[in-house]
Write a structure and sequence with these properties.
With 431 residues, the protein is mainly alpha-helical. The chain is built from 20 helices and 6 strands. The chain has helices at 25-50, 54-71, 87-96, 99-123, 127-131, 134-146, 149-157, 165-184, 188-191, 193-212, 220-224, 246-252, 255-274, 279-300, 310-319, 324-337, 341-348, 352-376, 384-398, 412-426, and strands spanning 80-82, 158-159, 162-163, 306-308, 403-405, 408-410.
Length: 431
């Protein structure tokens, strides 16, 4: 399904920096910051919703990413950020048993990844192409992109749940800046369109706020924050004693299978973008091990579980830069930022319409990558089986069809993936 493609072979045109290529130091920092901005909003939002210090999530995302890169032999440009799949369960556990239970649940989820990785190592991964053919993979990737679209659009046009024209204007200016920098930028400008778009949107938001008198960009947290701060870690055996929380294990561990399907989807997108087959090299067992280890690290420090981030894949799809060194740079910056109070506060001051404007471009590019797979593999939609599979995946995924059973929640992306896989196996071939 994903063969070995060369640069310029169709699937992987116009690569600026390939997986193992390192940009010059100055450019490397700028490109890494782009990835930091892309994942920042979602990564800190999860702990805020759960009641955990966002700085811990920032620290664990960086450390988890470095662990994932190391396990995968620096062959996969994947960033690990806070997972949304566990939010409802974490909120429940925080009310009943506290952070210790959440942390144990996160580590249990990581152990599930390691167990599956062990099975894959001995059973092989030849089954992947049979389970995940292009007619399943393409729509799944479309769903991964479009399932995030509501969040992006709401960030652009809503303030406190109400429609806001000023926010819409800021979001559209940011989006337009990203498009123009990407389309017409030369040299360094063409390499960092997202970062430049963010700066344009941020400055425009400040100007609009000053002209209209609205408090769009709030700098109060920046002035009040110290330069150096230690995140409020909750470390196993240091901040609390070990205790078995069966409810945490039973409710959070199964969700690992949900995020695992997202993991497969993200690897497939990266396969398509880079023209490689990461399922074979470094191997699915290593990608799963890296993800599991990152989750265990997050749980150990009292952070939300992490997973590979579609936001960062969107950045790579847009700027054609797949360097693992850029991802590693973003991870190091994230770790450092978690200890710098003023910088973290400055990043937190980026208004939601600016993040939303950028997200519209990023998520759209991910969805388009799914369409590209369908086109490149010449999937025949006159075939009833193909048509039905794609239809079910798209509607159930984008509509966020959710299965809830005994505290276990399987949401849109994961459930649509499972439905697609199931339908492909049971439906007969019919023209």
């Amino acid at each position: 399904m994903f063969g070995d493609y060369e640069k310029g072979s169709g699937l992987v045109d116009n690569i600026k920096y390939d997986v193992n290529e390192m940009p010059k130091p100055g450019m490397l920092v700028g490109l890494s910051f782009q990835h930091l901005f892309a994942m920042f909003g979602a990564t800190v939002l999860v702990p805020i919703l759960v009641g955990i210090d966002p700085a811990i999530a920032l620290f664990s995302s960086g450390l988890g990413t470095l662990a994932h890169l190391t396990v995968t032999k620096y062959k996969i440009p994947a960033y690990m950020g806070s997972s949304f799949a566990y939010i409802a369960t974490m909120q429940m556990l925080m009310k009943t048993d506290g952070i210790a239970a959440v942390a144990q649940g996160a580590m249990a989820g990581g152990l599930v990844y390691l167990l599956v990785a062990l099975i894959v190592r001995f059973a092989g991964n030849a089954w992947i192409d049979k389970v995940l053919p292009p007619v399943v993979v393409g729509p799944i990737i479309v769903v991964i992109g479009l399932s995030l679209s509501t969040t992006a659009v709401n960030d652009v046009m809503l303030k406190d749940g109400q429609y806001n024209f000023t926010y819409l204007l800021i979001g559209l200016v940011t989006l337009l800046a990203v498009i123009l920098f990407n389309m017409y930028g030369k040299k360094i400008v063409a390499v960092v369109p997202i970062l430049l778009g963010l700066i344009v949107g941020y400055v425009f938001a400040i100007v609009v706020g000053a002209v209209t008198g609205q408090n769009i960009v709030d700098f109060s947290a920046v002035s009040q924050s110290p330069w150096f701060q230690i995140p409020d870690f909750d470390i196993l055996f240091v901040d609390y004693h070990f205790k078995i929380y069966p409810s945490a294990i039973l409710t959070m561990a199964p969700i690992a299978f949900v995020t695992m399907t997202e993991h497969f989807g993200h690897v497939m997108v990266l396969n398509s973008l880079t023209g490689r087959d990461f399922f074979k090299d470094p191997g699915l067992d290593r990608t799963l091990t890296g993800d599991g280890l990152a989750q265990i690290i997050a749980g150990f420090f009292g952070a939300p579980p992490v997973t590979s981030y579609g936001e960062n894949i969107g950045v790579m799809a847009l700027n054609k830069i797949y360097s693992v060194y850029v991802i590693a740079g973003a991870a190091v910056i994230a770790v450092v930022m978690s200890f710098i109070g003023k910088v973290s506060a400055l990043l937190s001051s980026i208004p939601t319409p600016v993040i939303g404007g950028i997200s519209i471009a990023l998520f759209g590019v991910i969805a388009s990558s799914g369409l590209k797979i369908l086109v490149e593999n010449k999937v025949n939609f006159d075939n009833k089986k193909n048509l039905l599979i794609a239809s079910v995946i798209l509607v159930s995924g984008i509509g966020n069809l959710t299965l809830q059973v005994a505290g276990l929640q399987i949401t849109g992306v994961a459930l649509s993936t499972l439905l697609g896989i199931l339908l492909y196996q049971i439906l007969p071939e019919k023209d």
